[in-house]
Amino acid sequence: MEAEGPDIPDVGGESTRPGAVAVTEEEARRVFPVLEHLVREVKTPLSIDTCKASIGERALEMEV
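^ that's the sequence the OP posted. Answer follows.
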């Protein structure tokens, strides 16, 4: 992924399109397993795509 993928992978677990149904705890269940894997496997910066402060804060607290 690093060699052929995006410069900064953007991980999100909820659609941000207008009119999309919001998800609550489901967003965390979708995003954090992926982030946990990526922080161990890739050296590039990661982006978390969320509008929820709690999700963003939790992502920032993950050990790199």
